[in-house]
């Protein structure tokens, strides 16, 4: 069976023909690198937006990740990351951008499986400093990442992204039974457009250049070497180009929760400020916390689009997830107006 561009989705990925063709290609790529598969393949992850196949080899486990049409940019993005920040990501063994396929070595244990509580918060804080340095290194590569297909969510693009998010969440409301609470929230969000425009303008005036926002930077999306105290970041399918501080919405919310939920507490501020210090030569240090708060608030606009993309992929494939998360984009967008800037929609 020949698997060409455009062959994706849960039905395709679950078919014996796709699995046989993908495994044959994987074996060829491994052999070209002098690696031999030593056992049967496992297919543990099949989602509407991507799937992954794991195989044992004489050089450890390897993974073939197949991306859907909306996340296929991850394949060429890895090429840029491996060149510019090789110590922070997995090194791809092979790739087929036309089919959205990439072969990666196993990265070991994720941070979220190794630590908990305050210990996890401290390790996550160290990973965030590392991620900030990654963002600094990637700033000159923004044009290449955009050319690879990463979505543009830089500050000047965010008001338009907000308007589009309003439209798509209006569509979701109109598609089903009336929901008074969500209708009210949608109206509140729409009424706040001028305020959102002000936040986007403030971020546009920021001295910090745009960089890569992972957009889901939690401890299970980073492999962790406890001896070196370093992470390798993975699962870039939600990534966008944005104000660098937007990437902190998810991890800082988790850090705060792990430390007891008090944003003014010294341990939380120490972790936040260690990340901000990576950028202290670009803007006045006293301005950075407020800029981070604005960037995290605006980041929920990009996350609303990510949810819409995921739910749309599920709906096209008849996945029941689509009904379950029908209002996820609206619920996420509403976090823009929450009093807590670290509310993750």
TrEMBL record:
<dbReference type="InterPro" id="IPR011009">
    <property type="entry name" value="Kinase-like_dom_sf"/>
</dbReference>
<keyword id="KW-0808">Transferase</keyword>
<dbReference type="Pfam" id="PF01636">
    <property type="entry name" value="APH"/>
</dbReference>
<dbReference type="InterPro" id="IPR002575">
    <property type="entry name" value="Aminoglycoside_PTrfase"/>
</dbReference>
<protein>
    <submittedName>
        <fullName>Aminoglycoside phosphotransferase</fullName>
    </submittedName>
</protein>
<dbReference type="GO" id="GO:0016740">
    <property type="term" value="F:transferase activity"/>
</dbReference>
<feature type="domain" description="Aminoglycoside phosphotransferase">
    <location>
        <begin position="54"/>
        <end position="245"/>
    </location>
</feature>
């Amino acid at each position: 069976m020949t698997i060409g561009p455009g062959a994706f989705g849960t039905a395709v990925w679950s078919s014996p023909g796709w699995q046989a063709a993908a495994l044959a290609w994987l074996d060829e790529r491994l052999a070209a690198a002098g690696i031999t598969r030593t056992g049967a393949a496992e297919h543990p992850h099949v989602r509407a937006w991507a799937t992954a196949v794991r195989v044992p080899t004489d050089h450890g486990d390897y993974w073939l990740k197949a991306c859907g049409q909306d996340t296929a940019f991850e394949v060429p993005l890895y090429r840029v990351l491996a060149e510019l920040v090789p110590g922070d990501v997995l090194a791809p063994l092979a790739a087929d951008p036309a089919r959205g396929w990439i072969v990666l070595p196993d990265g070991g244990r994720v941070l979220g499986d190794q630590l908990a509580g305050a210990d996890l918060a401290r390790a996550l804080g160290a990973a965030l400093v590392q991620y900030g340095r990654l963002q600094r290194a990637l700033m000159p590569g923004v044009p290449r990442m955009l050319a690879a297909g990463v979505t543009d969510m830089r500050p000047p693009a965010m008001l338009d992204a907000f308007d589009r998010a309003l439209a798509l969440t209006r569509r979701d409301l109109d598609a089903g039974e009336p929901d008074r609470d969500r209708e009210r929230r949608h109206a509140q969000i729409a009424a706040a457009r001028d305020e959102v425009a002000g936040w986007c303008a403030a971020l546009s005036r920021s001295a910090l250049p745009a960089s890569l926002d992972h957009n889901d930077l939690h401890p299970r999306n980073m492999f962790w070497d406890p001896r070196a105290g370093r992470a390798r970041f993975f699962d870039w399918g939600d990534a966008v180009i944005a104000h660098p501080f937007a990437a902190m919405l998810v991890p800082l919310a988790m850090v705060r929760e792990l430390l007891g939920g008090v944003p003014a507490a010294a341990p939380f501020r120490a972790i936040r400020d260690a990340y901000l210090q990576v950028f202290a030569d670009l803007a006045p240090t006293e301005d950075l916390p407020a800029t981070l708060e604005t960037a995290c608030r605006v980041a929920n606009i990009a996350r609303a689009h990510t949810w819409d993309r995921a739910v749309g992929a599920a709906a096209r494939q008849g996945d029941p997830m689509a009904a379950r998360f029908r209002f996820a984009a609206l619920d996420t967008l509403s976090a823009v107006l929450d009093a807590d800037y670290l509310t993750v929609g």
